[in-house]
Design a protein that fits this description.
single chain; 196 residues; alpha/beta; 5-stranded parallel beta sheet; two-stranded antiparallel sheet; 4 helices; 9 strands; 26% helix
Amino acid sequence: MTPIPSGLPHGVHGMGKAPAGIVTPPPRDAMLGWRREPAPFRPEDRLWLLGVHGGAGVSTLRRLLAEAGILAADAGRAWPVPDGRPVLAVARTHGRGIACAQAAALQYLSCTVPPGTTLLGCVLVPDGPGRLPRGILAAARSMVSAVYAETLAMPWIEEYRLLDPHLGDDLPPLPAEAAALARQVGELLNPVKESA
């Protein structure tokens, strides 16, 4: 586990690899809906990014991953129709974001998501620059890292504040921490096979 400047643990393993169906689902009003029709995607998209609340940072993460050569589809705020692509949840590092991330993991672990869904983990997107307050760090560890198979942390990138991720603005070169996040997402998509 490597902390990044925000103080969030990066690459933490939680109980997300536990057998499905052993967890009580979150309250119904905290659950994400299911898409009845497929969301728009490109054939070359390798995974779905699921915003567990509005403003989670999916568009920015999607652009960051594309800069690193990992194409991802935006599932919006509903579980995508399973199509073989895994799902990566995305949440901000504020109270609502952390609570929504936990609810999405519990929904997955309680088997109340579309059958055939594979949830890889969660990316926490900073809601501001600098180190996070202790209370938020503690909540991220106990409410998010504890329930996802993998919890990754996106770094704060000051230059991204002026860019609209929906436009074709040129992004600055990927900072080392962002390139490391993209590498970790790539490793989740292509797990290294241990030799026997």
